[in-house]
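User: Show me sequence and structure for the first protein, then do the same for the second.

Assistant: Starting with the first protein.
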Amino acid sequence: MRLSFCMIVKNEAAHLADCLASVSALADELIVLDTGSTDETVAIAQRFGARVESFAWTHSFAEARNAALHYVTGDWVLVLDADERLVPQIQPQIQQAIQNQRALVINLVRQEIGAAQSPYSLVSRLFRRHPAIRWSRPYHAMIDDSVTALLQQEPNWQVLNLSETAILHYGYSTAAITGRDKLTQAKTAMEGFLTAHPNDAYLCSKLGALYIQTHEFERSIELLENGLKYSPDPATEYELHYHLGIAYSRLEDIKQSEAQYRAAIQQPILESLKLGAINNLGSLLKEQGDLAQAARLYQTCLVIDPTFAVGYFNLGMTLKATGQLDLAVAHYQQAIQHNPGYAEAYQSLAVTLLKLGQVGESLAAFRQAIELHSQHNPAEAERLRQGLAEMGLRL
């Protein structure tokens, strides 16, 4: 089976080489559709031996992705964005999975590096080249609509999941956080699509989540609850409940928020995809004083993903609140081990070490926290400096 790698790009010179390097050993051909780059994007793609084609941007990701599919010749198609990397260890599993004669789509687990919320998602980025499989939706483009229609006509096909992490997505890193202009463009595109598809549960989930980002919480809740009325698949239902949990928590409706998180956790999806809801429910309960149940939820997170830095941090905070300072220190250190840029973990470690009388180690942790905060949160860095000065502590 020949595997084609396919992507659309525009001004991705900073990321493209790493992306292409991650797939070049697996793919039999590289297809790069450029939508108007003015930097070195095209030259970088050509250095990797990619076939580079041009496409005039139409403000529809689906149209661009479908145009790229036109140039694919392989039996299977793998799609990544420039800020994504294929995990090397997943390649043998992909090679084996595409030998399955009944497989139509192989969903891949994507790790959202630096995401404030759900650290994992499931994406339909590996699929058989079939004339009926096409991308739809101008924003958050997906093949799922065409796959659903195809399965109704040809039910012999299978949609499979690989449970191991396959893709690393760096789009949530601090340097890559989208600005308000991009959020506005996304909202405009999705609201326009919603006008013609008011009963689309997936769209309700994505647009509802965006409304949370723009602090339109009541509007988010209305849309997310509307999405639940239209028989969403388990993954979409999880997202609807999960984002409802966030929206209700922002409005301080704790009872509703807890109910939504619990409903999300009950969905029959991969356990790694539930980490956001489990972690958020733990934080909700910790804020309400239920430290024992919060600790159990954080421990569940770490069983699911032993590299989940936020889980170690939150469990450390819970242990500190119960007076288990040595254990709290150990968990903060684990959080830092898995995320060396975790300023809050260094800060909490410093405070706890100070309580334990380990002044030298505490000041070293404070210095690291201040250095990290200075990069992304200068006000917090200055607050820490002043606080330490008032305590008579010199860095």
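Switching to the second protein now.
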Amino acid sequence: MKLYMHPVSMTSRPVRLFIAENKIPCEEQLVDLMTGEHMKDAYASINPNKLVPLLEDGDLRLTESSAILKYLADKINSPTYPKDLKQRAKVNELMDWFNTNFYRDYAYGMAYPQVFPNHKRPSDEVQTATVAWGAERARNWLSVLDKHWLGSNDYVCGSQITIADYFGVCLVTLGEVVRVDFSAYPNVQRWIGNMKKLESWNRTNEALYSFANAVKDAPFVTC
């Protein structure tokens, strides 16, 4: 298998973490987002979406982080993607929730326009309004995650870790780049702490924290 990825990519990180934790043999191919390599013909011919990650396994190519996690979990028969129909449905529900309701506002509304120049809006007025709207919406989603999905649970689907946790925590910890104060969401903070106990967490997230350190003095609107 080969994983086309970038170590700072929020959607590459959960796949890399799952692979590392489960010691799945997989070659990594860096696609340098910072130099625009993903937009060039060589990579676009493999993935017309011009995004990472992309997993190759023989003649199979998968381009969505959520789909890749499900495939890998099934491939190794991991309990993190339960076989029970109702339990699996809950995992799917949480992954869809993170990928749509939560991440749309949290990342593309609040964080990305401040962190990545290609996401910055065309005028200061639009930029300010976009980020303020995204931050307001992100607070709501973090509150839903804190009180509804997590509550007293150790993980988002209950007492056992699932691929929804791998997926979700790597999206949520984007907030560490823009200095989100997770203490306002104590169950989220506790859950992040649980996930950071994974053996491979520090190693697979080294690039994220290096990036966060590089922008540590930038003024951010946060939630």
